[in-house]
Design goal:
The chain is α/β, with parallel strands linked by helices. It contains 45 helices and 30 strands. The strands form nine sheets. The chain has a six-stranded parallel β-sheet, sandwiched between helices.
Length: 1135
């Protein structure tokens, strides 16, 4: 009796078709948010309720252990719900846990344990995780290379001479061979056959090259003479053509003939353009120039390939032996052995009876070996159901082949099965889905001639809930070469993201947990984002593989571990002493190092042990070198503690030693007190866990140290912090976000999605071309080496690059479609060229007519006005913000000074040196620490002191500058004065405000409190400051500084600020590429004073040179001639 399933929602017709088609094979394309997991769950239940099979006859294979666990929970939960709705179903649905739900590796492992004896293997084995397998393989490679080290082998010599990473290349090639299901001998056979093809291809390239060069020479007199090809290479063609023709005829060439060809083709290096006249033949010419030399090196290439195949045979044997000794299999072994088992007829027959329904999730991530396993199971009487989304295939680096989805779908159609597409998106709102359809229709057109070029199919909206703020694009057009003074793109992106999140949370619009920040790769600005998150106080958790071992807290622990492993390692000990474990100052460490040298100790540790004693000699040495002996930094305690840890290292486990060191030094409490303290502590706990796992494997402390060194070369993710407060921003790569969804998704760095360099391996394996080596081939008779000219290699690289470009399209699709409610695209880089053309392929694909209506351009009102909305392109109807002004936020590879410091130096070099260089605290607090107090020196020495209840000049300046920057009218300014707490300010200074609000500088629209930066590389200086107001007009920029003096010689006062305004003007000219006029404005007398920046330039240059001289010499300069009694250093200087 069949029973009807009761849904907890109303499925679409497409979903019902996928759920109810139980008598035929089915391939389902499920786009992002299409509800494929529900379809899988209901299909399993429907199979049982319709009496087609029991749960034990169903196998569901997922991509990850997490996905498998979640599917088990959801299946049991839905089965319970169905039984509650209809108790009669209990007899059928109570056995839901019997369904086999696992990863492909879990399925294979169970199969091997069950049928191991069929292939002569033992059922008891451990499964190596990827890290352990990699370490074991690297060990096998290292041992094989050591055994071949002394061999007189020119191939190894050439490989090492090119500084190539031989171990990494061998590891990658070996893994690829096995993942395709080949043996090394089969890989060599493919390689030798493809070399024959390559030789024929090089001959064809030679023939085409000769004909095109003959034709080009006949036309060279009318060709464009500006290219090197026409000017230098074509005229020489008649001299070398005969020898090229002899090579084409396969005549024996002399050494001189070969050298003539090689030398001539070497001249093509660096040529990317031939001439407009011959542009249609450019590829033929350049490909010929690259590949013709291969005809001289075929024998050498064959020898190289055979040598590497021999190495791989040895590595395979050694790796197999190491795994046997550990009674372990790696993931590829699981698949290979499972495939071997499935080829046994009796096993296949038994499994066909047992497994009636095979369901595979995320099929777009299947590799060739896994497909072979599926094909062996998918026989007569077995129903196959695959579901996935080719648009989300982003795991090529793991061997996934997107073309396999269409291949299997096609075979399902041929067998009379169904292909179903789930077109509804249940995740995102209407505005976002409209954007996906608009953008990806252009960006992912597909190409039927390329099986890996997946095209986009429009999604349908389920919710019908448009949101005008759903899509937010913030872009910065940035040319690093032309605009070095601007904020670096990654930092710009980090600040925009931080402010965007902070404002949304503070306004109550969202919580931190609602946000995910996605990066295309780990180098796209993670460190900058972390710094800005810390600055803004934004909590986050990172799933990025920003190398865990590069974290500061982990480096501290590793320094201690390296020292314990080798007590003569001075660098590790010094790093450890300086860090939180011991917190010893640089000066103390330096003095101990000096003592080590004086006493001729063998190591820093030996010096500490000697200096940590209590004898008269040691005490005398301590005093002579100035080494402290305080309670907080007791050298004797330090010596005893280090000696104790070194003793522990001989008999305690490394995890116990590290626990002891943390406990004794309170390292954990120190970490908790730091920014992101809980995350730091979680990372240390993860390190302890890693070490404990190695201890449990029976490894010695020395072996564990070696394991940690190997792991440092690989990307390990930070600890996933489990905290009571989970209200945190998620930061991860797009790969890490696959399968997840968030209310707000921020995609950072769209400019990083393009221009991947492709495969850079110098020794690699390709499934069709075999083993390829890009080593240059020596021609001893010519005394030269020919660069790699293997036609297979060029063809391979071209295809690799093409496949990567299509995967980049899919990667962007995955990123965008993680969003439920809001999608924020934040990117900086070269977007538009000076000619107004798109430099970025992604931006080029935006449908600007659509975006002009749909995009919400949010004004973030950042603390720095780094973009403006003046660049409106009426044709495209879109705003492209560009960096206008930005403060430098770089690490100090230069000296950074404020313009007011220049004024300070010009008035008194000694004052500048004491404050700016030595940071000497004042002995008297007569003057304000704000330099605006020194305005008195330029003006009115005889001015009366302020009346009682009136603030000092510095405070007055601060109050009025806040008004100038923020008040919109006189009434608002007066209200601000009343709230300042100084009752008589309004009465005494009303004239300043009245004049200010009538002035043209207030009436003109502009930015207030603008941070400016001017980099002078020739002087190794960066001048940074804030201008009171900047007014940007199409042809002119005006910068104004406001001064609040009420009497004195205003021209003289303004003269004192000439250099400051000149710096502002030069910074703006460098940034905006427009002329700048600079003014001092005195509101009290309503007086404008224009600064002649050209005249001030020479004075400024002289002052900057003097500043560098003073800072370089590090000697106290003479005081200035305008000493003021209110100078903070007056008593120190004149004493």
């Amino acid at each position: 009796m069949t029973m009807v399933i009761k849904y907890d929602y109303e499925p679409t017709d497409e979903q019902k078709k996928a759920i109810n088609c139980l008598d035929r094979d089915v391939a389902v394309v499920a786009g992002a948010g299409a509800g494929k997991t529900r379809v899988l769950i209901y299909r399993i239940l429907n199979i049982v309720l319709q009496g087609k099979a029991d749960f034990s006859n169903i196998v569901a294979i997922t991509f990850t252990e997490k996905a498998a666990a979640e599917m088990k929970v959801k299946l049991r939960k839905e089965a319970r719900r169905q039984m509650e709705l209809n108790p009669l179903l209990k007899s059928r649905l109570s056995k839901a846990p019997l369904t086999t739900i696992s990863t492909i590796h879990g399925f294979c492992a169970n199969l091997i344990r069950r049928y191991a004896l069929k292939i002569g293997y033992v059922p008891e084995f451990a499964v190596l995780d990827q890290d352990d397998a990699s370490r074991l393989l690297i060990k096998a490679i290292s041992e094989v290379l050591e055994e071949n080290e002394n061999a007189d082998d020119r191939i190894f010599i050439r490989f090492k001479a090119r500084s190539y990473s031989l171990k990494e290349n061998l590891e990658a090639a070996y893994n690829k061979i096995r993942e395709f299901g080949y043996t090394v001998s089969e890989a060599l056979e493919i390689s030798l056959k493809s070399l024959e093809w390559a030789e024929e291809q090089a001959k064809k390239n030679l023939e085409a090259f000769n004909e095109i060069m003959k034709y080009a020479y006949s036309k060279h007199n009318i060709a464009d003479k500006r290219t090197r090809f026409v000017k230098e290479l074509l005229p020489k063609w008649p001299e070398v053509e005969p020898v090229f023709r002899r090579l084409e005829s396969q005549e024996e060439l002399t050494a001189e003939g070969k050298k003539a060809i090689v030398d001539y083709l070497a001249s093509f290096k660096g040529i990317t353009s031939v001439s407009a006249t011959f542009d249609e033949y450019k590829d033929v010419i350049l490909k010929g120039a690259q590949t013709i030399p291969f005809l001289f090196t075929v024998a050498d290439q064959r020898e190289v390939v055979e040598k590497f195949a021999s190495l791989l045979e040895q590595i395979d044997a050694r790796y197999t032996k190491l795994k046997q000794e550990a009674a372990s299999l790696d993931f590829t072994d699981l698949q290979l052995k499972a495939l071997e088992i499935l080829k046994h007829p009796d096993v296949k027959e038994q499994l066909q009876k047992e497994y009636r329904y095979i369901m595979i999730d995320e099929y777009q991530d299947t590799n060739y070996l896994q497909q072979q396993i599926v094909d062996e199971i998918w026989q007569e009487g077995v129903n196959l159901f695959i579901v996935g989304d080719p648009k989300q295939s982003i795991y090529r680096f793991r061997g996934a082949e997107v073309a396999l989805f269409e291949d299997t779908s096609s075979r399902i159609r041929k067998k009379g099965g169904e292909n179903v597409t789930l077109t509804f998106n249940f995740r995102s709102n209407k505005t976002l889905i409209d954007f996906y359809n608009s953008f990806f229709a252009n960006y992912m057109p597909g190409d039927p001639s390329k099986p890996y070029a997946v095209g986009y199919e429009a999604a349908r909206n389920f919710h019908h809930n448009p949101d005008e703020k759903a899509l937010n694009i913030i872009a910065c057009n940035y040319d690093e070469k032309a605009e070095p003074e601007k904020l670096p793109p990654k930092l710009w992106q980090a600040r925009v993201i931080s402010r965007l999140i902070k404002e949304a949370v503070e306004s109550g619009e969202a919580e931190y947990r609602d946000f995910a920040v996605l990066f295309s790769k780990r180098s796209s600005g993670l460190s900058e984002l972390e710094e800005e998150f810390a600055r803004f106080g934004i909590p986050f958790t990172s799933g990025l593989s920003q190398n865990f071992f590069q974290r500061e807290e982990i480096r501290e622990c590793l320094s201690l571990i390296e020292f314990l492993n080798n007590p003569t390692d001075d660098l590790s000990l010094a790093a450890c002493l300086k860090g939180p474990f011991f917190s010893i100052s640089d000066e103390e460490i330096y003095r101990i190092m000096a003592l080590k040298k004086e006493l001729q100790c063998s190591s820093l540790y030996a010096a500490i042990l000697g200096c940590g004693g209590a004898g008269f000699y040691v005490q005398k040495e301590r005093q002579r070198f100035g080494i402290q002996q305080t309670a907080g930094n007791n050298l004797q305690d330090l010596a005893e503690h280090l000696a104790e840890l070194c003793t522990y290292y001989g008999y305690m486990s490394l995890s116990d030693i590290l626990h002891e060191a943390i406990k004794k030094t309170q390292f954990n409490l120190i970490l908790l007190a730091q920014t992101m303290g809980r995350e730091r502590l979680a990372n240390v706990e993860k390190l302890l866990e890693i070490i404990s796992q190695e201890v449990q494997k029976g490894r010695s402390n020395n072996e564990i140290v070696e394991v940690l060194r190997i792991q440092q070369e690989k990307a390990v993710p930070d600890a996933q912090v489990v905290l009571e407060d989970q209200n945190r921003v998620a930061v991860m790569t797009i790969h890490g976000a696959k399968g997840l969804e968030f209310k707000h998704v921020i995609v950072s760095g769209l400019t990083d999605f393009e221009g991947r360099s492709g495969n850079s391996a110098h020794f690699d394996f390709h499934k069709e071309m075999g083993l390829m080596v890009s080593l240059p081939s020596p021609l001893p008779e010519l005394g030269v080496s020919v660069p790699c000219a293997d036609p297979r290699y060029f063809s391979y690289l071209e295809k690799e690059k093409d496949e990567e470009s299509y995967e980049d399209q899919r990667l962007l699709y995955v990123a965008f479609t993680r969003a439920r409610e809001r999608l924020h695209l934040v990117f900086a880089g070269k977007i538009i060229t000076k000619k107004g053309e798109y430099a970025n392929g992604i931006v080029k694909m935006f449908d600007w007519n659509f975006l002009a209506q749909k995009v919400w351009f949010k004004d973030l009102e950042l603390s720095f006005p780094e973009y403006e909305y003046a660049n409106f392109d009426a044709k495209r109807k879109v705003l492209l913000p560009e960096v206008k002004i930005a403060e430098a936020h770089l690490r100090p590879r230069y000296r950074a000074l404020s313009p007011s410091a220049l004024v300070q130096f010009d008035m008194c070099p000694r004052l500048f040196y004491l404050e700016q260089r030595l940071k000497v605290p004042s002995r008297e607090l007569i003057a304000s620490t704000d330099f605006t107090q020194l305005e008195l020196d330029f003006s009115y020495e005889d001015e009366l002191p302020p009346a009682e209840g009136t603030p000092d000049k510095a405070t007055i300046g601060t109050i009025f500058h806040e008004i100038f920057a923020s008040a919109e009218n006189l009434e608002e300014a007066l209200e601000f004065l009343r709230e300042s707490g100084y009752d008589n300010l309004e009465e005494n200074y009303i004239t300043i405000l009245e004049n200010f609000f009538r002035s043209r500088f207030f009436q003109s629209k502009g930015e207030s409190e603008v941070p400016l930066s001017w980099y002078l590389p020739e002087k190794n200086l960066r001048l940074i400051g804030f201008a009171d107001k900047v007014i940007v007009e199409p042809e002119l920029v005006t910068v104004v500084d406001f001064k609040t003096q009420t009497q004195g010689d205003f021209a003289k006062i303004a003269q004192g600020y000439e250099m400051q305004l000149t710096v502002y003007a030069k910074a703006l000219e460098a940034s905006l590429k427009r002329p700048v006029r600079a003014y001092i404005y005195f509101p009290y007398p309503d007086l404008e004073h224009e600064i002649d920046t050209r005249a001030a330039q020479s004075r400024l240059d002289a002052v900057l040179d003097e500043i560098n001289k003073v800072l370089d010499e590090r000697s106290l300069p003479e005081p200035g001639n305008n000493c003021a009694a209110n100078c903070r250093y007056y008593s120190l200087c004149r004493g």
